[in-house]
Amino acid sequence: MDYRFPLIEKLPPYVFAVINQLKMDARRRGEDIIDLGMGNPDLPTPDPIVDKLVEAARNPRNHRYSASRGIPNLRVEISRWYERRYGVEIDPETEAIATIGAKEGFSHLVLALVEPGDRVIVPDPSYPIHSFAATIAGCELIKLPINDGPEEMMDALRKLEYPRSGQPKILVLSFPHNPTTVCVEKDFFEEAVAIARERGYLIIHDLAYADLIFDGNKAPSIFEIPGAKDVAVEMFSMSKSYSMAGWRVGFCAGNRQVIAALTRLKSYLDYGIFQPVQIASIIALRDCDYVVPEIVDIYRKRRDVLIKGLATAGWQVPSPKGTMFVWAKIPEQYAKKGSLEFAKRLITQAGVAVSPGIGFGERGEGYVRFALVENDQRISQAIRGIKTMLND
Ligand SMILES: Cc1ncc(COP(=O)(O)O)c(C=O)c1O
Questions:
Q1: Counting atoms of ligand 1 from 1, which one is nearest the CA of 99?
Q2: 106, pLDDT greater than 90
Q3: Is the CB of 234 within 6 Å of ligand 1?
Q4: Closest residue by CA, ligand 1 atom 14
């Protein structure tokens, strides 16, 4: 039998899988590859969070199915997090839901809100699930350029021509932005909220990098804009701020109709996050603010080592204001062959794995993304390899 799966055919093999394979082949040959490919945090989860997990895991009461939308105390803590950080009121009962990481939350949220054929507006390039969630749900994408900064994207949004049939249903935003590292100020959200209200679409803002912003800058929540809850929800991830990537916890907050839709869909799909993980997440949100600046400082130092090192190799890349990434235009002499070929060459000739920009969308072509997930020494070692390759 030859089966056909039309949905799966719409999902191209992950470009990153090609790089991963090359990385594994090289490692098998005994080569040392510095892996700056995937945004997979390498730092340990802080002790108080791990300790709470262990304690809660020993209690058999926590071994049963949990609540799909998150236990009440976790939702209360989400609400307190918003109040403390942004002065924003979130009702834990109706305006917050725990998700199995921001990625699961985001993809099911899109599925909950659309019908096949709906239009979804996304930045290009984007974190892959920001566009593929819409593809999986059978939607059509409207892509906005973002490489040159927030003004480029806002300008394209302002000038968007709307077909008479099929108004967009969702606008996807995410700042600090993966992969471009673009950050915005509140005025960006103010205008986006006004446009969404006028046009009648919803905004999903993915604030996964809420804390990963440097040099005294602050990443705003969309809810700092009065009335934003009428048109928006926001996602947060525990993966980056608390180095909890493998734990799979995040949350979504905001518009209650949207939260209710996601709650309903998820109640069909899952039984909730393992309860000890939810209990430990309460500790993270309640007691672990102090670890966040330490984590941010580690990423900032790595950023500086990489940016300065690339400059000494003759590769000038702007220093990102936020995220755990560096988004680098490919040096001119290599640009023609494209980002995938350049990334392959970086593995084989420099011993460095990065993500090719094309993996994030058409407008990602011409770039590669470095994830700051190895320590300063290893990044310096990567620079030595890159220098040798570029000056060969
Ligand atoms: C913008 C963005 N959102 C969400 C995630 C994933 O978050 P989580 O681990 O909570 O699923 C990532 C991970 O790289 C990301 O870059």
A1: 10
A2: yes
A3: no
A4: 39
245 lines ligand 1 (CB under 6 A): yes
- Number of the ligand 1 atom closest to the C-alpha atom of 104: 11
User: For the segment 302-329, what is each residue's pLDDT rounded down to a tens digit?
Assistant: 999 999 999 999 999 999 999 999 999 9
- The pLDDT of residue 43 is above 80: yes
Pocket test for ligand 1, best of 103, 174, 235 (most atoms within 8 A of CB): 103
Among 131, 239, 249, 360, which is best to mutate for testing ligand 1, by the most ligand atoms less than 8 A from CB? Answer: 239
**Chain segment 119-139, per-residue pLDDT in tens:** 999 999 999 999 999 999 999
Domain ranges of the chain: 6-44+291-390, 47-287
The CA 127 to ligand 1 mean position distance, Å, reads 8
User: Whole-prediction pTM value?
Assistant: 0.97
41 lines ligand 1 (CB under 6 A): no
Q: Whose CA is nearest to atom 2 of ligand 1?
A: 208
Q: Give the pLDDT confidence score for residue 195 in this predicted structure.
A: 96
For ligand 1, atom 7, the nearest C-alpha belongs to 102
Mean pLDDT of 175-183: 98
Fold: same for 6-44+291-390 and 47-287: no
pLDDT at position 162 is 82
Find the 40 Cα to ligand 1 centroid distance in Å. 9
Give the distance (Å) from ligand 1 centre to CA of residue 208. 6
Architecture of domain 47-287: 3-Layer(aba) Sandwich (3.40)
3-class SS letters over the chain: CCCCCHHHHCCCCCHHHHHHHHHHHHHHCCCCCEECCCCCCCCCCCHHHHHHHHHHHCCHHHHCCCCCCCCHHHHHHHHHHHHHHHCCCCCCCCCEEEECHHHHHHHHHHHHHCCCCCEEEEEECCCHHHHHHHHHCCCEEEEEECCCCHHHHHHHHHCCCCCCCCCEEEEEECCCCCCCCCCCCHHHHHHHHHHHHHHCCEEEEECCCCCCECCCCCCCCHHHCCCHHHCEEEEEEHHHHCCCHHHCCEEEEECHHHHHHHHHHHHHHCCCCCHHHHHHHHHHHHHCCCHHHHHHHHHHHHHHHHHHHHHHCCCCCCCCCECCEEEEECCHHHHCCCHHHHHHHHHHHHCEECEEHHHHCHHHCCEEEEECCCCHHHHHHHHHHHHHHHCC
Which class in CATH covers the domain with range 6-44+291-390? alpha beta
pLDDT in tens, 263-280: 999 999 999 999 999 999
